[in-house]
Amino acid sequence: MQLLSRMRRKLFFLGLIRIPVIGFVRPKLISINKEEIVVSISLRRRTKNHLNSMYFGALAVGADVAAGIFAFYYSEIHKKNISLAFKGMKAEFLKRAESDIRFVCSEGNKIETMLHACISSEERQNESVTVYALNNLGEQVAIFEMILSVKVLK
């Protein structure tokens, strides 16, 4: 539970200091463990579009945070500082996001393996990670394929 609190603080300060759009959208870290992360974004004035559904930019922030915080989670576990970037993103929107949205990434093992490869090779590693966006009914509204790029800093 202590690691969850640290990750929540890290997300808050990331949005406050480094990436203001994350602070503007205010994603919430619901849960995180070695296999899965769940991030939530509320549908409200800041995240709505003119059709009263979630703006695709807010959806992209949720996918970004779900994949990115997972990498920071493993860097905390292994006590390594990392440089994180997204090299690419592919999104498929299945239906309108007309409620609060949960972003779920269940590829913790893949991210941890990438971090181990990064530590042993001392080179930047790229890996494709899938994030699912689910509405309040548990229906998929979007699927994101994020290309995560990580390098361990010395």
Overall description:
- The chain has helices spanning 2-18, 20-25, 56-77, 108-121; strands at residues 28-32, 37-41, 82-93, 101-105, 125-134, 140-152.
- The chain has 154 residues and is of the alpha+beta class.
- It has one domain: Hotdog Thioesterase (Thiol Ester Dehydrase, Chain A), CATH 3.10.129.10.
- Strand 1 and strand 2 (37-41) form a beta hairpin.
- The relative contact order is 0.18.
- The model has no long low-confidence stretch (mean pLDDT 94).
Query: Could you say what the CATH topology is called?
Result: Thiol Ester Dehydrase, Chain A
Radius of gyration computed on alpha carbons: 15 Å
Helix content: 25-40%
> What sequence of helices (H) and strands (E) makes up the elements?
HHEEHEEHEE
Beta-sheet strand percentage? Answer: 25-35%
The N- to C-terminal Cα distance equals 28 Å
| Level-2 CATH architecture | Roll
Biggest sheet statistics: 6 strands, antiparallel
**What is the structural class?**
alpha+beta
How many domains? The number is: 1
Counted by DSSP, the helix tally is 4
Average per-residue pLDDT, rounded, comes to 94
Oligomer state of the chains in this structure: single chain
Looking at CATH, the homologous superfamily is Hotdog Thioesterase
Using brief descriptors, characterize the structure shown.
alpha+beta
Q: Quick recap of the structure?
A:
This protein is of the alpha+beta class and 154 residues long.
